[in-house]
Specification:
Elements (H helix, E strand, L loop, with lengths): L1 H11 L11 H4 L6 E6 L8 H8 L1 H15 L3 E7 L3 H14 L4 E5 L2 E2 L4 H9 L14 E5 H11 L6 E8 L5 E6 L4 H7 L8 E5 L6 E4 L14 E6 L3 H7 L2 H11 L5 H4 L2 H4 L6 H7 L21 H6 L6 H14 L22 E2 H7 L13 E3 L4 E5 L9 E2 L6 E2 L4 E4 L9 E2 L4 E6 L2 E6 L4
Parallel strand pairs: 1-2, 1-5, 2-3, 6-10, 7-12
Antiparallel strand pairs: 4-11, 6-7, 8-9, 8-10, 13-19, 14-16, 15-18, 16-17, 18-19
């Protein structure tokens, strides 16, 4: 069953549904003492995982047991915010029915409770090494949506649909179940369309999501990792922040950073003991070369955005500068050295957690927090554009040709042997109309 489980997950193309899309068949092909399910859904406004916990709790529990047995986990934990009372009740009912030995660990409502390294510390008290992964401390972390996909994979179903929250400046905010490859614009239309003509979109959460202007939406599609589409006014604070040129951001840092330390003192990674000090990076921008040792600290930044969107009184962007430095250092093939000493969490950490409600007010999205979803609406589309790369690793290789008829669920892209990646499948039945980085399928009547 061990090999069979891994093969089924690989064949189905399961990747991390709540993060960057790490191929799940690789991630769980290990042994660990502790298996944690991230059920925090900590980004403001998102509610997809909450729906899955209410409606698919039995599938989630069964998948947790399968994976935990495979990795040999002694401790099995669902880490969930204590405010999710309906979801907790649903999970408890399924746990009782299943007789599963799975613990519910109740988290406070803070951001970023869902960061896997923060979650590992909350649940186990272990600190993941700088530049490391949870497996370095005998732990594996996965996501609620990933568990649902694993359950489907066990039943022989590929990952071809995605639950997506459509929220913000739309006429009918909805939770949609959409075929992977559906156009973002079509999803917005299903939610009644945008309330105003000039808008921008955040794919993902408001803190860490990808910002797109309206004109760039034409060729944007739902992937395995898109959990939300947030429509915001074009002049919204979050939108403007992400459109500022990097050189302007660097110049702002040079002229306006007052070395107050707030970005460091509220940094989640710094608070669990990592040597990440954004204020020193900001202070060094004007005096040191980019190869200086202090800039190497940027490599362990998780880009949660607290420093930029919450902490800085001067409106500066340590997160964006850290991302810029990380990209530069990676191009130079730099890898951060792991700290050999013992990491210690900051003694003030519990008093510096960022309350999510306060964060929403700070970034001006609290007006959308009332948009709750009790059901999901399934939509159909006549065409899809399915990227061959929706995951960490290499692009999948197309195994279909132009003009081919494909059935819903049929594999159309396979990860090359021996490479890190994930398979992709047709989300609708139809004809292959285009093959490139994206495979386009047009609905038809039959082969």
């Amino acid at each position: 069953m061990v090999v069979d489980l891994i093969n089924k997950i690989k064949e189905a193309g399961v990747v991390g549904a709540g993060g960057a899309g790490f191929p799940t068949h690789v991630k769980i092909n290990c042994k660990a003492d502790t298996f944690i399910i991230n059920a925090a859904e900590c980004e403001p406004l998102l509610s997809t995982d909450q729906y899955l916990m209410r409606e698919k709790s039995q599938d989630i529990i069964e998948a947790i047991n399968e994976v935990a047995n495979h990795v040999g986990a002694r401790r099995r934990v669902i880490a969930i915010k204590k405010k999710y009372t309906e979801e907790i009740k649903s999970l408890q009912q399924s746990l009782h029915k299943n007789g599963a030995s799975i613990e519910l660990y109740l988290l406070d409502n803070f951001f970023p409770a869902g960061d896997e390294q923060i979650m590992v510390y909350e649940v186990t008290g272990r600190i993941v090494p700088e530049g490391g992964i949870p497996l370095d401390v005998d732990t594996v972390v996965s996501n609620v949506g990933t568990m649902v996909n694993i359950k489907d994979a066990i039943l022989g179903k590929a990952v071809i649909n995605k639950y997506v929250t459509i929220i913000g400046e739309v006429n009918e905010p909805k939770l949609l179940r959409v075929p992977i490859g559906a156009a973002i614009i079509d999803c917005i239309k299903e939610a009644g369309g945008a309330k105003e003509d000039d808008y921008s979109v955040v794919l993902g959460g408001p803190m860490m999501g990808r910002v797109l202007d309206q004109e760039k939406l034409k060729d944007q599609f739902i992937t395995k990792t898109v959990g939300a589409v947030i429509i915001l006014p074009k002049d919204h604070y979050i939108i403007n922040r992400n459109k500022t040129p990097i050189q302007h951001i660097i110049n702002q840092a040079k002229s306006a950073c007052i070395q107050c330390r707030y970005c460091t003192d509220l940094c989640p990674r710094y608070l669990i003991g990592h040597r990440l000090r954004p204020h020193l990076i900001m202070g060094a921008i004007s005096t040191r070369t980019i190869e200086d040792e202090v800039f190497q600290e940027a490599m362990i930044c998780c880009e949660c955005g607290i420093c930029e969107l919450y902490a800085c009184p001067m409106g500066l962007s340590p997160r964006i500068i850290n991302a810029y430095l990380k990209n530069y250092l990676r191009q130079k093939n730099f890898r951060p050295a792991k700290f050999d000493g013992e990491l210690q969490a900051n003694e003030a950490r519990d008093y510096r957690k960022i309350p999510t409600d306060r964060l929403m007010a700070k970034i001006n999205v609290q007006s959308y927090s009332h948009q709750k979803f009790k059901r999901a609406y399934s939509i159909k589309v006549s065409s899809v554009g399915i990227p061959l790369k929706q995951h960490i690793g290499v692009m999948s290789e197309a195994i279909v040709a132009l003009g081919d008829w494909v059935e819903e669920g049929q594999m159309i892209g396979r990860v090359p042997d021996g490479k890190l990646g994930a398979n992709v499948h047709a989300s609708i039945s139809g004809v292959i109309m285009e093959i490139g980085d994206i495979i386009r399928i047009q609905e038809g009547d039959g082969g």
